[in-house]
Amino acid sequence: MTFKQKVTLLPGVATLFLLAILLLSLRVGQDAARLGVRMVDGYTPVLASVRSLDSLAAALKWDLRDAYQARDASRLGLMQKRAADFLAELSHGEQNPVMEASRLQSLRDAFDMFWLEGHRAVELAARGEPGSEAAFLLALERYATLQQLLRGTGEWAQAGLEQSFDEIRVMQRWRQGWVLSLVVLCILSLGLLSVWLVRGVVGPLARLTEVTTRIATEGDLTQRINVDSRDELGQLARGIEALVTRLRTVPVTLQSTVDELTQAAARLTEASQRQLAFLSHQSRSLSEAGTTMTEIAQTSNLAASRAEMVLKVAAQADAFSASGRNSIESSAQGLQQLRARVEALMRSVAHLSEQAARAGEIIGSVRDLADQSNVLALNASIEAARAGEEGRGFAVVAREMRALSGQSVQSTQRIGKILLEINHAIRRAVSIAEQDSQQMEAGITQVLTSADRLREITTVVHESSQAAKQIVSSVTQQNTGIAQMTEVMTTLSQMMGDVVESTMNAEEAVVQVNASLERLKQVAASFRV
Question: Is 0.70 topped by the overall pTM?
Answer without folding.
Answer: no
